[in-house]
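Slide 14.
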Amino acid sequence: MTRFPNADFLEYGCLNTQSVGCNTASDKVSTINQMMGNFLRIFTIRVMWLEILLFLNQIHIFAIDITFFMYALHKMSVEISPAS
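Slide 15: predicted structure.
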């Protein structure tokens, strides 16, 4: 059977419909289910990592905003306070 790069899961099922034991519709459906199941698993893991990274990015941006706000507040209070 032909090997596909990064798609070893295709070899589980009946990719070649001419081979023995792959003539029934249920075999073809099970192959499609295996392919979709693997795709959804990989897709879910990648989306989960993306959500984690976006969440960390939001925390990082929020920390930068707070830092600039505190700095601006400090500069404002220094300018308002009477010179000593």
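Speaker note: The chain has one domain: 8-80.
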